[in-house]
Design a protein that fits this description.
About 65% of the residues lie in helices and about 0% in strands. By secondary structure, the protein is an all-alpha fold. It folds into two domains: about 5-30 and about 95-240, Tetracycline Repressor, domain 2, CATH 1.10.357; about 40-85, Orthogonal Bundle (Arc Repressor Mutant, subunit A), CATH 1.10.10. Helix 2 (about 40-60) crosses helix 5 (about 85-105) and helix 6 (about 115-135) packs across helix 9. The protein is elongated and about 60 Å long. The protein starts with 6 loop residues before the first helix and ends with a helix.
């Protein structure tokens, strides 16, 4: 879920180009090699934690290597034992953010047998919005740096790639089951509808637009289903 342009770099634009699983692996920059000693590992972890706190509080541009070292309680030069630059430690912090979204996806509980497509959509929307709300400050910083740093922009794309892959494959399955119009391109649908959810999460959690979490999940699910012509289980719940 995220900006529309990413679909051109992350997922096949047409089901004719191959299954969603054929998408190349993450393009995020490699993480710095972990130190070998326990003491080094603790120092490195302190630097990462300090960097995250400062990025979330002050933003990327206002945070310096000196700030990170000072907050970590280490000498300025010690920072460069573990990271080449502020960009490198930010990449590590941002990668942990991507892992949070991946973990939420993997931890989604099994729905009962016979569940509807819209129930799965609702569950995924709820998982995404929950993680976004919890990590909103870091998401705001990541959105900021993605506008001027190509390497860090790649991490932003990575943060949504799994959702694009999953949702593209899902739309293809629904088309195979005659639930979705075959004229709809699965990858574009995944990008556009994912962008709707992602941008809504940004407006609510970063810009602070008032919203009710449960109502937000419900309305996004209805809009998602309506856009694809899918029946929504929430209609039945309201009638009951």
């Amino acid at each position: 879920m995220g900006s529309t342009r990413d679909v051109f770099e992350s997922v096949p634009i047409s089901p004719k180009t191959g299954p969603a699983e054929s998408v190349p692996p993450t393009s995020a920059p490699p993480l710095s090699a972990a130190p070998l000693t326990p003491r080094g590992a603790r120092t490195r972890a302190k630097l990462i934690a300090a960097a995250q706190a400062l990025f979330e509080h002050d933003g990327y541009l206002e945070t310096s290597v000196a700030d990170i070292a000072k907050r970590s309680g280490v000498a300025h030069g010690t920072f460069y034992t573990y990271f080449d630059s502020k960009e490198d430690v930010f990449a590590e912090v941002a990668d942990a953010l991507v892992v949070d979204f991946q973990s939420a996806l993997a931890a989604e509980p099994q729905l009962p047998p016979g569940h509807s497509v819209s129930e799965r959509i609702e569950q995924t929307n709820r998982s995404y919005l929950s993680v976004y709300a919890r990590r909103a400050r870091m998401m705001a910083v990541l959105e900021q740096v993605a506008t001027f740093n190509p390497r860090l922009a790649a991490i932003r794309r990575t943060s949504r790639r799994m959702w694009l892959q999953r949702n593209t494959a899902a739309v293809q399955r629904w088309q195979d089951a005659n639930l979705v119009d075959p004229a709809i391109d699965p990858a574009y649908a995944a990008s556009v509808l994912g962008s709707m959810v992602d941008r809504s999460a940004y407006v609510w959690n970063v810009l602070g637009e008032p919203h009710d979490f449960d109502v937000a999940v419900e309305q996004l699910t209805r809009l998602y289903c309506n856009a694809l012509g899918l029946k929504c289980h929430l209609d039945k719940q309201n009638r009951d």
